Amino acid sequence: MTGEVFKGNFTQQEPITEEAIEAAVAVMRSGRLHRYNTLPGEKGEVALLEEEFAAYTGAKYCLAVASGGYALGCALRALEVKPGESVLTNAFTLAPVPGAIASVGAKPVFVGVTEGLVIDLDDLQVKISETGAKVLMLSHMRGHLVDMDALMYICNGAGVAVIEDCAHTMGAHWNGVPSGRHGVIGCYSTQTYKHINSGEGGFLITDDEESAARAIMLSGSYMLYGKHTAGPAPDVFEKIKYETPNVSGRMDHLRAAILRVQLRSLDVQVEKWNARYRVVEAGLRGTKGLTLIERPEPEHYVGSSIQFLLLDWPDAKIEALVAACLKRGVELKWFGAPEPVAFTSRYESWRYCEVQSLPESDRVLRAIMDMRLPLTFSLEDCEIVSRIIRDEVLRAG
Ligand SMILES: *Cc1c(COP(=O)(O)O)cnc(C)c1O
């Protein structure tokens, strides 16, 4: 088996289906791409998508927006987070999360990460009492769900509003409750590398009518909020419509058209991802030196990527492993690299934030390896990939 090389492409998503292409072509033929450009009696693709995503998650209200990062910033504004205010978030997340906090002039305060790659609930309690923060932007980074019942117990007890970053958990749930439905607002991304693909795009969902109304006004609805069939009643807007700024970030009919088709098969896609995840997980299990992330029983995850830890490996040894795998066609991302490559995912990389020290998290962050599992990989591809990683980890000794 030594010398086996993998030929797949780790960033190749599935094509947009013919059905979705036809839906997109119909929008283009109509010439009406802007979400508010509808005929009398016509809801339009965006409002229909919002109704369907609200129904999928069980939320009362849904707003489709231009990106996941936009949804996060919009959520903070909808909760009226003020400049200088502390907002708690994960030490292990992706750049758009602290970026959204910084975009409203607020101060990201990082909460540690556990070896299970979720937010450290003990550290969360410490940070809540140290900072008095009233908002937690909780990132379900790489699809790992913390014990949401325990987290909500802590946050509800302390009067901390939770915004969920579900960029990696669309379609996931904890104890049967969809990810994004525990906090006051859930945010999602429909960017190409997430679970449904419109190039760019996102959603914000909530049951809170005032947050929903503010978010809709913020997104650039002018005085056309009546066209939001997945939004609250007009009287809710009366209270806030003149005091909520317009920070345009709308979704358009073209993207909505292709998302509506994809949303219908999301649950089927989730099962395909998980089948691939399980093959890689089984292939890596028991490899000396490599720590798998055990998934808790109540977590129904979406295995669109897999992580493992190389705890206490020296940097040079990890670098050599990444290089050896790459030579054999397997693209591992080392989230802990001292110099971030392509993207940043750990708190020290965001130097516009106040310096913080999280030594226990540092040990975990330094050890995180990540690999995408696109649906263009077959189950056999997943076997090959895991064989190569296992082989190289054992060889590194
Ligand atoms: C992709 C991503 C986002 C933001 O989504 P965009 O649509 O790219 O703005 C937020 N959080 C995490 C963890 C992500 O991976």
From TrEMBL:
GO MF annotation: an example: pyridoxal phosphate binding
GO biological process annotation, one example: polysaccharide biosynthetic process
Pfam family, one: DegT_DnrJ_EryC1
Residues modified to N6-(pyridoxal phosphate)lysine: K194
SUPFAM superfamilies linked to this entry: PLP-dependent transferases (SSF53383)
Active site: K194 (proton acceptor)
Keyword Transferase applies: yes
InterPro entries documented for this protein: DegT/StrS_aminotransferase, PyrdxlP-dep_Trfase, PyrdxlP-dep_Trfase_major
Keywords (A to Z) from UniProt: Aminotransferase, Pyridoxal phosphate, Transferase
Family: Belongs to the DegT/DnrJ/EryC1 family.
Name of the protein: Aminotransferase
